[in-house]
Structures are given as C-alpha cells and as structure tokens.
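Q: Predict the bound structure with alpha-D-glucopyranose.
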Amino acid sequence: MFSKVRKSLVALMALSIVSGVAAKAVANEQVKAEPWWKQAVVYEIYPRSFADSDNNGMGDIKGITSKLDYLKDLGVDALWITPCYPSPQVDFGYDISDYKAIAPEYGTMADFDELLAEAKKRDIKIIMDFVMNHSSDKHPWFVESASSKDNPKRDWYIWKNGAASGPPNNWISLFGGSAWKLYPKTNQYNYHFFYPEQPDLNWRNPEVRTAMYDAARFWLDKGVAGFRLDAVQTLFEDPKLPDNPVREGKNQYGDPNTEYLHNDKLPEVHDVLRELRAVLDKYPGDRVLIGETSGSDIAEISKSYGKDLDEVQLPMNFILAYINKLSVPEFRKRIEEWDNNPARGWPLYFFSNHDQVRHYVRYGDKIHNNEIAKLTATLLLTLRGTPMMYYGEELGMQNNDPKTKEEVQDPIGKIGWPAEIGRDGERTPVQWNADVNAGFSTAKPWLPVSPNYKQVNVVVESSDKNSVLNFYKQLIRLRKTEDALMHGTYVAMDEKNQDVLSYLRKTNKGSVVVALNMTPASKVVQLDLKSKGIDAESANPLLASYEVGSSNANLKSFTLPAYGVFIGKVK
Ligand code: GLC
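A: Predicted complex:
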C-alpha cells in the first residue's frame, strides 16, 4: 500500500550517519518543572478536512473551533494544525504566499484569534505548521525575486545559470522531475526541492533568516504553543552544486533509494534549528518545536535534539512510524532504540499523518481491524514519550483512495498516477455522523467521504462502549491518571516472545504492565515481574480490549485473545 514517493518523503534525509554513544534513558523523568509537552497528547488537524462551518465543501478555522468540546472530551491537549496561511493550495497549504495571515478560504485572523482563545479556555494549545524550506511562487518575495537579476530579493531564492545541457546539475525534485525550473525572463534556473511552485528559500541569506524568525515571532506573540517544522532538513544545499551520485537504475522519480547527498541534511540546518529554538525560548510557557526529521538510523534522527538539547524538543521518528506490519521483534527493537536515543531526548511517537497511509489500513487484516486499532492505540498511549495522533484515527478512519486519475487532488498523485496515487486517501473529511457527507458539510466535500461513514462516525461510536473512539478516550484518561504511564521508565519484558509485546512503565511508587498480542491467535503470556525487581505476581486490570475474567490477573500465566491488549497495575 505504501507508495514509493511517500516512502521517499520520509526516507529522503537518510545519508549522513553519525556515531553516538548509546546512553541509557533517563532513569525517572519525574522532575519538578516538567514542560507541558512531555505530558500532552498532540492531535494533528488537516483544516481542509476537519469541519466545514460555512458549507462550501472545505473545512475552516471556525469549523475547528466548533469541535473543541469534542477534542476536549477526547482528552487531547494540543492541536498541530497543518498550514492555514494564504496559499495557492498547489500543495494544500504547504506553498505559503503570506506567513503572517490566515487563508481567506479558511477564515479571518479574527477567527484564528477566537480559536486560540476558545482553545485556551479548554486548556488546549495550538501548534502551527511552519514551512521554512520554501514559499509559494506567488509569495511577493518570490515574485520580486523572479522579476530581475538585480532585484534586492534575487538572492532570497536560489537562481543559477544552466549548464550546456540544461539545468545546473542533476538534482531531482522529491515530487518528480528536475529540481530546477527555467525562468526565461532572466534565463536562469530556480531551485525547488518539492513542486516547481514551491521555490526553496535561500537560508544562507541573513535577510531570509530575519524575515522567517520575524514570522515565527508573529505567531508566538499571539500565543501559539510552538511549531511543527516542515521539511526542515532540506533548508541548505551545497553552494557548489555538485551532481548527486547516480547509481545504475536509481535516481529515478519515486525511487526510494534516490540520494540527496548535496541538498539534504547539511550541517548548517542545526545552526538554524538552534537559532529558531532561541527565538522560542525567549517566550514564557515552554514553546515547543516538533521536527519533520527523519534519517536512516536513530543516531541521525537524534541529532535534531541538538548537542545540548537546544534544537528540536520533539523530532519525528519515521523509522518507527513506518513499521508496516505488526512485528513484535521489530517494535521491541525500535522502541528500545528510540527510548535510549543517544541525545537522551524525550521521545515522540506517532503512526499516521497526512503524508502516510492511515495505520488502520497498514496494520489491519480486514478481520480484526478494530482490535488492531485498539492495540496500536495502546502502544501509542502507553509508551514513555509524547503521543501524537492524526485526526480520525480515534474513530478507526481508513483510507479512501482515489479510483481514477481525474479524482486526484494531490500533486504527487497527479504526476505519478497510476504508480503513485498520492495522499488524498488519508486526508478525507472527518466522519462526524451518519448524515449527508458524514456531517462534515452540506456541500460536496473537496475529497469524497469514506463510504463506511454510516458505521464509522463520532455519533455512532460515542454510544457504543466497545468502539475504537471510547477505547481511545479511556486510554487517554488512564494515561493522565496513572503516574507510571506519564513518568515511568520503559522496561521491556519477556524479551524473547515473538508474538506478544510486553513492557513495564516503572516508578518507585508503582508500575503499569502492558501486554499486546500482535497475532490473530490467542496466546498464553508468562511475565516474571521478579526478574524486573518487582515483588508481585499479579496485576489489577486497568484497561483491556476484552473481558478480563478475574479482578486480579495472574501475570505468571494469562491468556490474551487475538490482538488482545491488557494494561494492569502492579506494585
Ligand atoms: C512535508 C509535508 C508534506 C508536503 C511537503 C512539502 O513533507 O508534510 O505534506 O507536501 O513537506 O512542503
């Protein structure tokens, strides 16, 4: 199901490998002034698809505000809102034409201020998406820059003369084709890592840095809690523009092995991350950076925390998010390495976002999908770290992929069809109820609602105690009430078991045990707490995805049904 380009979207930054001294995770994270984001559940909203207040088929800011009570009841603490700035919407907001305004189709600045205020009343924080690598080609900065070679903004973007054979070098765009577009007016090529309408800003120009940090301050002054940094690892290019390595049969559009040696993860990125973090740190309230950071190994991803934890507080670990089958050894290994990351940074966990096939589909076997959704929810919400959800995962929303090229909205799908169908499938409207268009809008939605909306929606699931939605709610509440789930160390258990993933969240004052059966057969589990320094043999069940027979589960031997999940409290 995974498309090649989507894989490369996250694998693109996978070259430089640093060696790091593996350090054991901090023993107990219970510290006095703990920043809010360590305890928060973050929830990603794709505004175009969330809720449509003016019934034009597209979600908007007022729509989000109208659903704050739902989000509060769900239990989330912070919303990451994907770009809602003015934009020609070539890449649905990731092509910004004004960094200090709100897209008119999504509302006004007053609407945004209202969202902030209403969210604050409910103790929910707002995290903006910040697209630093590129602007839209319709941004006035770029319009000026393109107008002449001697325009003062010429150097805000990357312009080069062509080589005899065409573009300045062999670099390719992640979205397909050459990374260079010829502008005949000045007879120079412009560099774009993504779509041609997304020209890269020149971060070597101090004026660009000043302007972008100024934009960040604009939103921080309003009270946003931080930023999710889009595509931040491609801010810099080698100014000498050497060709990227070409390997036989590789470097083709969509090839996940394509190398971006000279235009990805250059060390200068860390200077910018440090500078931006310093901007945030001038504000009260522990403002946070979430980084779209990836890499071929944990040491590499971990670099984005910064040597002194002075860069991104929450880098995104796509290695873990891209595990595409329920493999106990793979999860155990990847959790262990992320929990023990060399920077000793606080882990962030997620499984889905607007660029990846929803994990309901990736892990689902079409028979036990809801059990599997509860299992992945448990994993997400019981690990040591900050969980980040993607809208609709709490309902068990699945992908609704386009069937024909004509239906496709996403540029990646438009270029790559049929091998690459794009990202529309994971961006469909929220299924609020069983009414027309799932209650998202009375007008035809910009993307078709998933056909299963009559069964899978907020209203139906709210009244079903066994629904995926109610399981998420219970899990989030449990996470907030059980101190061990917030602060306990992660201790792997039953480490040789290939079918059941078990672990403890351990504190001196009590621990929580979690066991997840990742197979379609029931499994007997035997957990030896004594080997982990806990003098107990049983647990008080806190939450399970099945009826737990006795009130005190004997951990020396208990049975988990197919894809069953058990969470219990031990001494
Ligand atoms: C990031 C975004 C993706 C966008 C790209 C270009 O990967 O998550 O949606 O297309 O950057 O901005």
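A: The two ends are 43 Å apart (CA to CA).
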